[in-house]
Amino acid sequence: ALPICTPVGKVGLAVCYDLRFPEISLALAQEGAELLTFPSAFTLTTGLAHWEVLLRARAIETQCYVVAAAQAGMHNERRTSYGHAMVVDPWGSVIAQCQEGTGLCYAEVNVDYLQRIRQEMPVFAHRRADLYGK
To answer: pTM of whole model > 0.85?
Structure first.
């Protein structure tokens, strides 16, 4: 699907497991996304190991803000979600994060900052589609 125009910017929508595959994020960014969203329910094990690094990687490689809501806590005896909702800027810096448990975090989205990063490091203009596709 194409990014959705909002007052904050163009938003690309994805879900939890999509975070593990850069292609959807790259496709959304190439279609103009400025923010990527990943509502998620990572387990405690995968959250501890992969949550932040994957969010930061998607932000860096797409030069987008990444906004990731996250279920937290024990659902039943066999399932506990990691939580730690997070916002990452286009440079890969975590600019807001919830800790353990239920919470809410806020971050400012600065589209001028995003555009400056894209101008100073035009990764999409440098992509070698002949080697690894769009």
So the answer is: yes
